[in-house]
Amino acid sequence: MRSLSLLVPLLCCCCCLGASSTAFSASPRFLDAAGSDLEEALADLRKQVERLKQQIRRQEEESRAAAATEAPLADDEEGVTDAPLFIEDDVIEEAGATQAPLIEDDDDTELSEEELKRSFFDELAARAEGRDMTKLYGPYQYLNPMPGAIFVSDMTTVAIKPKTCPVDLSTAEGKVTIRGEQSGRHEGTLKLGDDHCTLVFHPAHTMGYEIVTEGVEIFPQARKEQEKSPPLEYGEKITVAIEGGIKAGGSGNGKEAARETLPAFEWSFNIAKDTTPYSRTSRRRSASRQGGNGNGSGEDDPHAHKDGSQLAFELLMKERDAIMREQRQQNNKNGTAMAEASRPHRVMDPRRYQTMDATVPEIQQIVKTQPGKTADGYIFAANSGFGSGMYFLILDENGEPVFFMPPPAGRADIAEFKVQRNGHLTYRAAGRGGYVELDHEYEEVKVHTAKHGGFADFHGLQVRDDGRALVMVYDRRKVNFASREVQKVVRSGPTRGEVTVVGPVVQEIDTQGNVLFEFRVWDRIPGVFNYTKMQYREGMSLWDIGHVNSIDWTPDGHLIFSFRHIGALKVSRDTGEVLWRFGSEEPWNQFKYLNKDRGFTHQHDVRLRSDKSLTMFDNGNEFSPRYSRAVEYEIDQDKLTAKKVWEYRHDPDYFGFATGNAQKLDNGNWAIDWGGLGSPPMPFYTEVTDKGEKVCELQFSRGGSYRSYRQQWWGQPRTRPELVYKPPSGRSLGSVHYSWNGATNVTEWEVYFGPTHPP
Questions:
Q1: Which residues contact residue 412 at a Cβ distance below 8 angstroms, ignoring those fewer than 6 apart?
Q2: Residue whose C-alpha is closest to residue 593's, from 556, 631, 548
Q3: Looking at residues 320-331, what average pLDDT do you find?
Q4: Cα(first)–Cα(last) distance of the chain, in Å?
């Protein structure tokens, strides 16, 4: 907003028990963490472990001699295999695994926690052996839901991507069917994604719905669609069959000889046994079928209609309060104080302006901006609205407002506001279940929502220049931890039975709303419960094992994710397999640090800027002393090495326990948001040169910003400029105040006055 007045011109580790290659086997049931199956499997494993230990002791000399002549294991044979956590019977058979007879053993010797943990995850790895992506998907490159997947939403679509593209949709009509063990065959619509490669089958019951507010959905076509096909049943096995004869490939000029005929294929997955608060049937169907409040169990669940990100955020705020108390106690003990920003150089007080909302947050300019040393572009931020109301803001480098907007769909506490790769603005609209996209006139052009019944989480959205979007979902599921054996397997896990667990899900959605790709932690990361740094504590409303907080495409076309409670990982966009894991400690971390660095924890905003440059905001929660920093690593993705090449720590140190980001700018400067959710107050925008010189710093008087960015933007609003005239009063000569919210191309104003309207 420029020229606001005439008076103011600018306004889990997997180890071997011996040299023997003996694999562990258990009854190949569908292990879905539902308590009884795991308990029986683990009881079998305990007996097998003891029997095998006896065998190893009897053959100790022979094993030692054999070990001396055997070649060492390759590096990738150590640790946990990135294969599905829980595998279904028929998938095990397809992978070539066989069921060994149960070993009868009356020895009741107790296993240590580490032995039991090791045996359980050895078993998972053994059962996943041979399940590389080429075998998993048969003749296809990618299938979703993945064969053997668990916890699948009853609102899922089915994605099929062959190894050859493009696909001729006309040859695929009627060749894809899905059938439930209880619900039978499901009608639907087969669509071709905008990549011209991925077929997406939409079951009829998933079509025609719109999420309008968190916890509430409307179904404009629900009754008609449900008449065509019943919903999928909780816990049932779904089988997808692809008929042979689909045509793919070709040069695009009609040469039939270059095309390939795709073969038939069939696979199965399993619908979640419990409902979700955002499943379209979660209230109506479960309430009528099982009684109670509609949570799928008939029990009184106070969180039944909250999505996973809501519950995770509530837990995060409790964590903030606990950390701040601990930090204050430590500072009092040491006689030190928390680092807070210095006295401001100047203040942008919204009360000075007559055409701007008085509730727009006050902005303090901590450091005098140094023109010529700063980067180009405007600053984008959204203040945390804890008790004061959020605003989406575009600012100049002195903290003066260019654009301000409260959340149109109601109150929000935390959100991201930025320019996407396609040149449009996006902001999270909590009341609409996703992100609103605005054009250069600040007019809504699209709402980006998650699919498969989920809500797009507040941690961020990515939109490519072709309009394709990446969204993240906090998928909450009930897992039964009643078994004592399961409690031993899960590090610091629950002691009670059923616990709500939140697992990260990431979706790539095309411009027509097709889910072309989906990453689900349940399928892809075995040992996820033991990788997490979030220790379970009794009384938690949920166990947030991953806490995904940034997602993005990589320069080579794959994907990179940040899991706050685990680490960073790169994922193949082609197959969904985990390509590498990066963190501060084993067994998660696969990288070797080449120079002195403490590693990172609870990080945010992980970006792969080039093949060798990885940047992030390291919150540093688990280190002593605690401090946050912006950091860049030079990585070798083939050798899995990392070298710290740049970092910036504030002087004195700032510690933002959560949120924050670090953006490397085009001129080599860095833009840093220190996070912390406003406790204590810290700058939401610090710009430093690559030499560490501070050239701009802004802070809200209250609260912080989840992320802030410096980006190029131009705006030409459809709204008219605002003008306020204050007549003479007493000795005042009167004044005229005017602005045009969001206009960036105004160079001068002409003000007319006279006895008529218009003058």
A1: 385, 390, 428, 429, 430
A2: 631
A3: 65
A4: 24
